[in-house]
Design a protein that fits this description.
Blueprint lengths: L8 E5 L6 H12 L3 E2 L7 H8 L6 H17 L5 E4 L5 H10 L4 E6 L2 H9 L8 H10 L9 E5 L4 H13 L7
Parallel strand pairs: 1-3, 1-4, 2-3, 4-5
Helix pairs in contact: 1-7, 3-4
The protein binds adenosine-5'-triphosphate and magnesium ion.
Length: 175
């Protein structure tokens, strides 16, 4: 384990299939902090919608993002890693409103690579159109947002190492 001086609260973001659920727990283990799966914060109404195959609206997303932000806020000063695709700037603004110190690790990769990985995922089927819409919706981190972009080529261990190195280059979180 490699502890940073003041532990970061990290949101692992990126399009579907980019590796948030794979890398998030590995990164948390390296940082020695807990991991939370963003999908687990959906209110029951969202789960019902998703189960019925109805796309979520932004209005549906606010309470979900507030719940993730609440968890992140509770980890301030202690450190934590949570996954959330956080594709839009407005979603990240909402997370920061709840947890001002969060830093984003944006997992980035080519559409070809991610599509290939998704095609091997067991028990999941993602239509090509859904991946298209994910890339169309994605608003990458802007210069004023605390965070790093991490390329997802290579093994999960390599990506985690890349993320650790990128985080080390960031200033420590302000308490
Ligand atoms: N570095 C990697 N090398 C090979 N396969 C990987 C790698 N990272 C993730 N995968 C595989 O790619 C698929 C998608 O990864 P994962 O489920 O972690 O993505 P995700 O961002 O959490 O997706 P979602 O947004 O749908 O929750 C999984 O089958 C996973 O095992
Ligand atoms: Mg996931």
């Amino acid at each position: 384990m490699q502890q940073l001086h003041t532990p970061h609260v990290v949101v692992v973001m990126g399009v579907a299939g980019t590796g948030k659920t794979t890398i998030g727990p590995l990164l948390a283990a390296r940082l020695g902090v807990p991991y939370a799966e963003g999908d687990d914060f959906h209110p029951a109404a969202n789960i019902a919608k998703m189960t019925a195959g109805t796309p979520l609206t932004d209005e549906d997303r606010w309470p979900w993002l507030d719940a993730i932000g609440g968890w992140a806020h509770g980890r301030a000063g202690l450190g934590g890693v949570v996954s959330s695709s956080a594709l839009k700037r407005s979603y990240r603004d909402r997370l920061r409103a709840a947890a001002p110190g969060v830093v984003f690790v944006h997992l980035t990769g080519s559409r070809e690579l991610i599509e290939d990985r998704m095609s091997h995922r067991q028990g999941h089927f993602m239509p090509t159109a859904l991946l298209d819409s994910q890339f169309a919706t994605l608003q990458p981190l802007e210069p004023d947002e605390a965070g790093v972009a991490v390329d997802v080529a290579g093994s999960p261990e390599e990506i985690t190492e890349r993320a650790m190195n990128a985080l080390k280059a960031l200033p420590e979180p302000v308490q």
